[in-house]
Protein: Small ribosomal subunit protein uS9
Organism: Parasediminibacterium paludis
Amino acid sequence: MEKQKNAVGRRKEAVTRVFISKGEGKITVNDKDYKHYFPLVYLQNQVEAPLKTADAVGKFDIVINAQGGGLKGQAEAAKLGIARALLEVNAEFRPVLKAAGQLKRDPRSVERKKFGHKKARRSYQFSKR
């Protein structure tokens, strides 16, 4: 594999483009090291999860472009993107990643606000008199 592969990950409002190539395990998000971009440890773990599952830590350099949403959404979108990119590189990772549930797009997103309500489901307080 001499050429980089790419994939897209989405979660909530966040979209990440993931570029993967052979290397020594550097992960960059929006031109920053991922440990600086995602300061919380559990978000860093989200990004590393597919690599650990596929036992590919330190084998690939990953460049991620993240847009939209918040940090958590971007981290989880990156997780899906990395999992999909690993499949592009080597299809043998599929059963392991699938068993770990890392190829699923999380469909949950914010419910829209309805008219006549304060929020999506919260109504205004009812007053009888």
Q: What stands out?
A: The CA atoms of residues 71 and 120 lie 23 Å apart. The first strand starts at residue 5 and ends at 11. The first helix runs from residue 34 to 37.
